Amino acid sequence: MMISGKKYDDFFEWCKANNCFIDDRISFKFTDSAGITAYANSSIPIQQTPLISVPTNLLLTYQNATDFFNWSIAKGGNLPTNNPNAITQLYLSHLKLNPEAKKSQWDKYVEILSLDLNQPYFWTVDQLQQLKGTDLYIKIQQDFATIIQEYIELLQILKVDILDQEKLQTATISHYINSHLPTLLDGKLPWNHFVSYLWSHCIFKSRAFPQLLLNNAGSDVGNINLAFLFPIVDLLNHKNDVVVKWESSNDINNKNDNKVLTFITQETLHVGDQIFNNYGNKSNEELLLGYGFIQENNNNYDYSELTLKLNEETINESLKFCDLQKHDNIVKRDCVSFELNTKEPIPDNLLKFFGFLSKLQTEQVLTLRSILDGSDELYSILLSKLDFFKNHKLPSSNLKPYRLTKQYFNCQRKIFQNSIDYLLKIQKSILKENNNNLTSNLVSFKTILKNDEIFLNSLLQSFGITNFDDIIQKDFLKQSLLLWIVRMSNIESYPSKEQKKLSSWDWLDIQETFREVANSIVIEKEDVMEFIEFYTNAFPKLSNEIPEVYDKGDWKIKQFIIADTVMDILVWTRKLTNEPFFIKKQQPL
Ligand SMILES: C[S@@+](CC[C@H](N)C(=O)[O-])C[C@H]1O[C@@H](n2cnc3c(N)ncnc32)[C@H](O)[C@@H]1O
After folding, report:
1. Helix (H) and strand (E) counts in the chain
2. Which residue has a Cα nearest atom 19 of ligand 1?
3. What ipTM score was computed for the predicted complex, to two decimals?
4. Could you report the per-residue pLDDT of 201-239, keeping only the tens digit for each?
5. What residues form DSSP beta bridges with 580?
6. How far is the CA of 291 from the centre of ligand 1 (A)?
7. Does residue 424 line the site of ligand 1, with CB under 6 A?
8. 107 C-alpha to center of ligand 1: Å?
9. What is the pLDDT of residues 11-68, one digit of tens each?
10. Is there an atom of ligand 1 within 6 Å of 243 CB?
11. What structural domains and CATH numbers belong to the chain?
């Protein structure tokens, strides 16, 4: 067996004495990185026969726990329903930590279950603080509250003493756990203590198998989360994508007419290969929270969540515009969560959701403008997430929790980087699709300037601006846009040749939008104040110096206030390049 120590010898003796089967080609060893680890001591070709089989009477089940506590619905009412395994967990705490517990058939098995677990619930306060700012940190806090509630409800129902109830509800829970951890590790913590229960809760999370396996097809499996402990097979570590089978069958030796539960792997194993189980393909967040480790290069199953807290009304309104269904996991009462992963770095409904958030009141549907504007907002949020995971300084300690945090941050960083890269590709392709020889729904201001030489010349003469990059450098973007919009509103005052040229942008509906805004706008004193400085710097200087552009039509300050609203409706400035695009109004996407 390789793995040495009295408790392991006793455990494997117990397995043998109870008719368990472990293929001779399996050995176990202890590794620092993964605890007990199974590996092949000679090659094992793919096979259909079990490598491990365990009589079902050795499994530690809900039934065993309810028998022990002498509990039944008729007698005690409902157990906390959120976690059907609560009573079995408490039973495990009793078996592991109650010195007065009578001998049970699982003693040798329970003995090898380590009290020293890696899940973040057991990290020190400092170590846990490193996760602050992540969704994982919020989940851990929520889990603490759920597990405390579960503990209190269960012990009340079973009439078992609840220890430190008041402290549990007031103490900073990780301080409290930390202060009791040494006693737990010594095996001396009372079995009915919350921290003992937290331990058995985590043992279940990291080792239990679904009860479903034990029920015959067609029978009522009850709660699908119901689980049991499966000695020996729970010594196998996890790897995503490994193909394994857990099957219930009759004992091949047919001793005692007992049923057995078996483990079969569909992998070809060479000498020295680790024999893995598959706990269900999991993301790193699930692995860290449930099992206390991270699988690097977990690209197929890793994901991150983008959670937005909004008021209920906004969320309800968004349902009309995006494919978010209330019953989907992503919509909760006051928040919406989107999963980002390698296969779908930017879910379609995420883009639509941001399009909805960026919708102007005048837009009846999601438009090209609102989607592009929303994609920029999304870009900023993803960028700040990326910055967080990239630049957050973590202590350079070699302790496991710090190493795990580093790995977790790295994996999250990769996900956000991938989503950002993908979002920029989406933006580019939207721009391309809507600005080609066949479709013109948008045009960049850069292109407009290139084609409107008279206007560009006027900027050169009066502001020394030679090209678009100069406009950015001299921080003159907004002013240039406003001047051009007012110029377009005055199109009819220019000579017919110039009019003809400018009318090549008629499809942008600048004049019509300008008229609509002019008819509805109420100009306040503050609006005038906002524009006065720019206006007095430019006028009447511009009308005097370049009358062919700035003394044709109406160039009063009011026109600029109107142009500012027109700009909100028609212009989108791409955050990444600072490049503005005029977009055809109300162009649904
Ligand atoms: C079902 S147990 C497996 C046996 C365990 N190694 C032991 O010592 O008892 C699950 C625990 O094993 C460890 N584990 C499982 N798969 C792992 C992996 N791929 N890398 C690191 N640790 C792993 C984690 O601590 C996890 O909580």
Report:
1. 25, 15
2. 238
3. 0.99
4. 999 999 999 998 887 544 445 678 899 999 999 999 999
5. 573
6. 7
7. no
8. 21
9. 999 999 999 999 999 999 999 899 999 999 999 998 889 999 999 999 999 999 999 9
10. no
11. 1-50+231-281 (2.170.270.10), 62-207 (no CATH), 302-433 (3.90.1420), 442-583 (no CATH)
